[in-house]
From TrEMBL:
Leader sequence residues: none
A molecular function (GO) term: xenobiotic transmembrane transporter activity
Pfam families the UniProt entry points to: ACR_tran (PF00873)
Entry GO terms, CC: plasma membrane
Source organism superkingdom: Bacteria
Protein species of origin: Chitinophaga ginsengisegetis
Protein name: AcrB/AcrD/AcrF family protein
SUPFAM superfamilies associated with the record: Multidrug efflux transporter AcrB pore domain, PN1, PN2, PC1 and PC2 subdomains, Multidrug efflux transporter AcrB TolC docking domain, DN and DC subdomains
PROSITE patterns: PROKAR_LIPOPROTEIN
Length: 339
């Protein structure tokens, strides 16, 4: 009797141990864990300083807004900001998953109001916009030319901007449009690391002072919370590829014995496209893609139907050889996923 009981206990222990191992393996291979990370919910703050250049935006508009939000907003993961030569400033705040964006938007709006007293009057008069960035994509409208001919990508982009985009923007329920094309403009990027700059006792203002006013296009910064990486900067300059060496040799600081050059400060100086990732091919042919996003609390199907009807009407007046396709329809993807 004792031997049978002992045998039963050993068998039960073995089965229990195997079960734990199987459950652990199943957890490690869980399909949910194989899925890509979801994009973090985010809110964007847009401001404009008419007539200002990048340095003016960085000096008088960015600090009050950036500091007010960074030090007081809740559940923030990290923040990016870009000051451009047209006087615009875009701050994007990324939140931890599950954050209530409605409450976060109200919180940021209040923080913007607090900071507005430190901003130039022209910025306040131009208005500061707080936008939710998690608007769903309704569809992607693609425009392409069947023949290379005279209708290159530049023509398609201009044609869409004049004859298609304004109509889609007027459709009730459309929030905003994002146009993707093959960007032919190029610029120089100077990548800076704040830790490296701190080791050299160097400020961003000193680095920017070495770059001519008419060449400075934009400056992008990244701020992390929770003890993560410190602030980094990317400086964008309008220049030619042949000026890489010239820019690298620009003197940031000097004394009687030595000279600190831009190439000594920058983690990387490179020449490349104005933006990365803008590349469209439709049926193997060069084209453009117009991504349509939906405003909150509006009917998804009605927006799609209205845009499709608009494109059918617009296509009747297309120049010969220009076609359109709606290649991305999230609703169809949902139906397929649910089967």
């Amino acid at each position: 009797m004792f031997k049978k009981l002992l045998k039963w206990l050993v068998s039960a222990t073995v089965i229990y141990t195997i079960s734990i191992i199987l459950v652990s393996c199943a957890g490690m291979a869980s399909p949910g864990q194989q899925l890509p990370h979801m994009a973090l919910p985010s809110i964007q703050v847009r401001a404009l300083y008419p007539g200002a250049d990048v340095r003016m935006v960085l000096g008088s508009v960015t600090p009050p807004l950036k500091d007010s939000i960074f030090h007081n907003v809740e559940n923030m993961d990290y923040m990016t900001y870009t000051a451009s030569s047209d006087g615009s400033l875009i701050i994007t705040v990324y939140f931890k998953p599950g954050t209530d964006l409605d409450l976060a938007a109200v919180n940021i709006s209040n923080l913007v109001s607090v900071a507005s007293g430190q901003l130039p009057a022209q910025v306040v008069q131009s208005g500061i916009t707080v936008l939710r960035k998690n608007e769903p994509i309704v569809m992607a409208v693609n425009l392409y030319s069947e023949n290379t001919g005279p209708y290159d990508q530049a023509f398609l982009a201009n044609y869409a901007a004049t004859n298609i985009v304004p109509g889609i923007q007027r459709v009730p329920g459309v929030s905003h449009l994002i146009t993707f094309d093959e960007n032919k403009d190029s610029l120089m990027r100077i990548w800076l690391n704040k830790e490296h700059m701190a080791a050299l006792n160097l400020t961003l203002k000193e680095v920017l002072a070495t770059i001519p006013d008419d060449k400075l296009e934009a400056v992008t910064g990244i701020l992390y919370k929770n003890g993560k990486r410190t602030s980094d900067y990317i400086i964008k300059c309008k220049s030619e590829h042949t000026q890489l060496v010239e820019y690298g040799n620009m003197i940031v600081r000097s004394n009687a014995d030595t000279a600190l050059r831009l190439k000594d400060v920058a983690a990387k100086v490179e020449f490349g496209p104005y933006t990365y990732g803008n590349f469209s091919r439709i049926n193997g042919k060069t084209g453009i893609s117009i991504v349509v996003t939906q405003a909150a609390d509006l009917n998804y199907n009605e927006v799609q139907m209205a845009v499709k009807k608009l494109m059918e009407t617009a296509s009747m007046n297309f120049p010969a050889g220009i076609k359109h396709l709606i290649l991305y329809n999230p609703k169809d993807s949902v139906y397929i996923s649910g089967e």
